[in-house]
Amino acid sequence: MHEAGQYERYAGGSPEAERVLVERLVRDLMRVQIKVNKRSGAVDIARAFHAKAALGVENARLTIRDDLPADLRTGFVRPGAEYPVTVRLSNASAARQPDHAPDLRGVALRIRTGPDEAHDLLMTSFPVSHARNAHEFVAFAKAMAGADSTPRKALALFVKLPLAVGRPTARRMRRNVRAGSRQTVRSLALATYWSRGAVLWGDAGPVRYQLRPAPDAPSAPPPSRTDPDHLRHELAQRLRTADVVFELCVQRYVDSGRTPIEDGAAEWKVADTPVIPVATLVVPRQDLDAAPARATASRVERLAFNPWNTTEDFRPLGNLNRARKAAYEASSALRLGHRFVTEEPRRNAVLGVPLRAGFGALNRFVPWHRLPTRLGLLNLVALRQTLRRENLIDTEIHEAPPKAQPVPPPVEEQLRVERSYDGSYNDLSAPKMGAVGATFGRNLAPVYRPDLFDSPNPVTVSRQLLHRDAFLPARSLNILAAAWIQFQVHDWVNHQRYPTGTRSVEVPLPPGMTWRNSPGGPPENVMRFAENKGVQPPGGVAPPALFGNIASHWWDGSEVYGGDQQTAMSLREPDGGAALRLEDGHLPIGPDGIPLTGFRESWWLGLSAMHTVFAREHNVICEALRREYPHLDQNRVYHTARLIVSALIAKIHTVEWTPAILATETIDISLKTNWQGPPKNWLTELGLWLFEAHSLTGIPKTLPDHHAAPYSLTEDFVTVYRMHPLIPDDFEIVDHRFGHRIDTLGFNAVQGAAAEPLMRKTGLANALYSLGIAHPGAITLHNFPRALQAFERDGEVIDLSVVDLVRARRRGVPRYNDFRAGLHKPRIKRFEELTTEPETLSRLKDVYRTVDDIDTMVGLFAENPPEGFGFSDTAFRIFIVMASRRLQSDRFLTVDFRPEVYTPLGMDWIERNGMTSLLLRHCPELASFLPRSANAFAPWRPVEPARNNSGPGSL
User: Fold this and answer.
1) Interatomic CA distance for residues 331 and 116, integer angstroms
2) 864 lies in some domain
3) Could you tell me the CATH number of the domain that includes residue 860?
4) Does residue 2 register a pLDDT over 60?
5) Are residues 328 and 348 in the same domain?
6) Membrane-crossing residues (predicted)?
């Protein structure tokens, strides 16, 4: 039995190292594709190579020869077997140039050998490649991109190419290209085509294959020098009268010297390895100009051929072939509009270097938030560029080496205009990106130290530095801001846990302390809670530092709609109705007393209010869509309403919630710029034109861009969004009509199964009003809710502050000093640099040996935030890169944020609405209480109760 690996040598020394190199080359190749397209002036993006087709048919037949040698009989290659074949014949150039221009020719075959099995064979009309490997191949493509005239070709071949690969290699490449492209081709039916790279042929080992014309093929007239499409016309004429017949042949591997695998520029000479016919390919007689044939040719043009569309028994071999899998996938995705390339203007690339260096130096003395507004905005641009380059770490488990695959199925049409239930197919070129189960990424390299999991004791940290002795309010916000961020986090992130009692984390308690780990359970000397499930990479990296997200990573409203089809369908009206199920305007209650909605954990009155409002909003949008577009079916109405609600949520978070919690002019301008573009100010626009032109429009008017890594939310993002201090320990429920107190309740009386009865008894308007007039807690030390330090969940009693500390440690999030240094802030050297408050300073020194031991969450809470900020500047650095990333990566918030997908009504709905208008649509009686000059997350005006008013019945 032959194994592919025994013949191959990987660039960089390993399959993973080669994969990283190939990914860089693939990005370069896509830029070449864009450049060629621009030079040609074509509306659509052509194939990276073999752009101009002369033939596309689906009715060819491949018949395996009866005299096939015994050792070549493997897999589908069985004597007498016959298979349908799709054939594409083409010129090799990336530009659609005239047929008489010097060029190679190519053939692509898709042999369908079963319902779920096909084999793509790709060949070119010269026995060797101009490139030995993928690096040389891409270097040549980059040098030749746009070389559409003789002077430019000379510049590319004799200046650019030698600079990229060296003079000897460039000379050999020029020689091969000249030899291949100067052949006179009278007919594509008379050309011979070679694979140039090797493939595995089952137990027979490696082979190269070729396709040659049948010996009795009719001759062709001399090629036309005036007809730019003479090769197609010649084929059409030939097929009108007869079949076109080829022989499929192979050459066997001999040894690494005479038949090298890794060198695509080396010929396998017939003297060393004779050509063996294995099958006959027949393209039947037909009229290529008839309407059915034209329709077939159009379908073939949409196909994405790839030599890796095969089985492992016929796996491609060698560096060039291994690179072709990723290259062909990316090129096809770009051509079909499934993947995108955002080109950075040259002036931005050049000027960005001194910009980042200059602000990096300036920020050692003056932080960005102390600069004048316009300079601060430019500082944030520079900082975001740095963070995008250095703080997006790919944690996806990639395929290395590449593996054979079935032909990928076409994208289902509804996935182009609907968010999937689980977040898949947002990126059509990488369907699993950001979907349920995708791993959390990283902004900082993980620091996985099991020896420090319990040091210092997290219970001690919690009791000394986090425990709330007295409520510290955030006076610029209302409690709706606290409810909102939990509502959002439930859409974004959720680590999977082992079932309670099956696999637990055990935290030793300080001497003399005990803990009841379950309601009514016995006192124990450890604190116990369910462990997160890790994702084990192939090859068994132990212990795992990767974790999957059981929510989708996208901003898709999954907290309202659910993360799978079964949940989503169960929340809709019966019989496939578009609306969400409500009972007299309230969420239906499940058997456990928690409302039925997309995400039901950690339920309390604030979440109930948010979910109720947005479920009602969905239903109102459905009614509007049905009135405006009566031809839409219920499923399309549902999915369009979901798109609108999700985008409205993203807009509210971007231009309302965030400026409320980060209340500075610089942040307000920058976030509105993210959504709708910069203010009409020539100086601001000039700065962006010079340094980051893509910010001249709002992100929704740009193309998707994942920057340095596939899109995902990150473990570091999860850490900075630990904002539990926002939650008060007690709540006043107030009647909005008269201002009198209905009740004062502790957190346990407004959470879990108690929340929904309270909501129905109080009413949505009173609930919103009660939360709107009250302050949340400040995100600082000594302000963690007491109720959450003895919180019942899934049969456990947990201290959520301890859980937060332990989770960050066990997930490898760097400690605070490493965290801030990794985000390009200076390290602190003394505890006094973090706080000067005497009691806090004393406790920090008691709990931690050095400043390097401070937990990330503790440091973030202790840090003095910039003026107007509700959380620290260090946490904000994660926000800088991830806030725009959540928009920029999402197809439905960029390239498909358009009326054709959302409907004109939907686009107008998102444009005209925000949190205030949404609340007033469902509770118009609250109009007089919402802020006039601020958004709905600022404190509302409380009604002054009448002096003699004792309640609703008083006169």
Assistant:
1) 24
2) yes
3) 1.10.640.10
4) no
5) no
6) none
Return the SS3 of 164. helix
Q: 939 with 867, same domain?
A: yes
State how far the Cα of 113 lies from the Cα of 48, in Å rounded to an integer: 28
For residue 365, being part of any structural domain is answered with: yes
Q: What's the rounded mean pLDDT across residues 398-407?
A: 93
Cα–Cα distance for residue pair 687/679, rounded to 1 Å:
12
d(CA 254, CA 259): 6
The catalytic residue among 135, 369, 490, 706 is 490
Q: Which residues contact 298 (CB under 8 A, 6 or more apart)?
A: 56
- Distance (Å, whole) CA 891 – CA 428: 9
pLDDT in tens, 836-871: 999 999 999 999 999 999 999 999 999 999 999 999
Are 362 and 228 part of one and the same domain? Answer: no
51 neighbors 97 (Cβ within 8 angstroms): no
**340, 703 Cβ separation under 8 angstroms:** yes
Longest dimension (CA), the chain: 110
**315: domain range?**
4-335
- Both tokens of 275, joined, read 């050509």
Is 119 known to be catalytic? no
Provide the 3-class DSSP secondary structure of residue 797. strand
Single residue among 335, 351, 374 that ends a domain in this structure: 335
Q: Is residue 433 part of a domain?
A: no
Confidence of residue 338 (pLDDT cuts 50, 70, 90): very high
Nearest CA to 649 out of 489, 878, 777 is that of 489
**Do 204 and 90 belong together in one domain?**
yes
As a whole number of angstroms, the distance between CA 640 and CA 902 comes to 6
One-letter identity of residue 939:
P
pLDDT for res 119: 98
Which CATH number does the domain housing residue 267 bear? 2.40.180.10
Q: What is each CA distance from 395 to 18, 433, 715, 907, in whole angstroms?
A: 17, 11, 11, 35
Structurally, the chain folds into a number of domains equal to 2
Residue-wise pLDDT for 863-910, tens only, equals 999 999 999 999 999 999 999 999 999 999 999 999 999 999 999 999
Q: What is the 3-state secondary structure (H, E, C) of 450-479?
A: HHHCCCCCHHHHHHHHHECCCCCECCCCCH
